[in-house]
Amino acid sequence: MANNGHHWLQGKRVLVTRPAAQANGLIKAISVLGGIAIPCPALAIEELPENAANKQKIIDLDRYDALIVVSRNAAQMGLAWMADYWPQLPVHLRWFAVGKSTAACLESEGISPTVPAACFNSEALLALPELQLLSNQRILILKGEGGRELLEQRLAERGAIVDTLPLYRRAAVTYSSEQLQQLFAEGPPDALIATSVDVLRAMDFLLESALISRFELPLLVASERISDAACQLGYRHVITSSSAADDSIVTALNVIG
Q1: CATH code, residues 46-170
Q2: Distance CA 188, CA 212 (A)
């Protein structure tokens, strides 16, 4: 496996489909390794308008035993909303974060969340000892609209009283055929990245006519679940990183070096 020392992406062009607000770290990590990131956000993150039911969950924050934050977006938006009502957060709350970047966002506000040691996903969070016996524990999940319901279902099965607080929605980004042609003016990229099933599907729709060769290109995904979805769509060279963290993704990309 040629990796050019610490620059195994030297000259390699990598399509980054993460929403723009979350893509900067990955774009920088690719550049540091000599690669050329091609930003092509497949989804945009839109904050949901406040409604009375969700506002009440924030007002009643001290009635919960634990908060689970599933993404950096949920952390940023949730904390901003809480600041309007809770200058000092309830001290008894136990915080859980699905991934490292989400945990870092909470830590920057003085919160010390519990986070899985590896495999930053719902399954890893559900394996934590602290989330096994939950009889009558009230838990609030901060998340995006829709998405997986695995956390809610499993926690309820373990005895918890679970509420969810949807803070944002994912909306497909549209590009003109001219914009897509410009992205690939120098030919197809050397690799594609999709960090969620929603991003994968939006990316595939975008590339359907603009990148006929997409099924033959290396596709880096962030979980087995995304890998399964990619294979069903027809992608033939799927690489699965250990997590959606930037360093995990670029490390997994060394197979294209």
Answers
A1: 3.40.50.10090
A2: 9
Query: d(Cα 120, Cα 30) in Å, to the nearest integer?
Result: 21
pTM confidence score: 0.84
Give per-residue pLDDT as tens, 10-52.
989 999 999 988 899 999 999 999 999 999 999 999 999 999 9
Give pLDDT tens digits for 183-214.
999 999 999 999 999 999 999 999 998 999 99
Domain ranges of the chain: 13-42+173-256, 46-170
- Alpha helix locations (H) across 68-194? 72-85, 100-107, 122-126, 150-157, 177-183
Q: Which architecture characterizes domain 13-42+173-256 according to CATH? A: 3-Layer(aba) Sandwich (3.40)
Quick one: which of 218, 168, 173 has its CA closest to 193?
Answer: 218
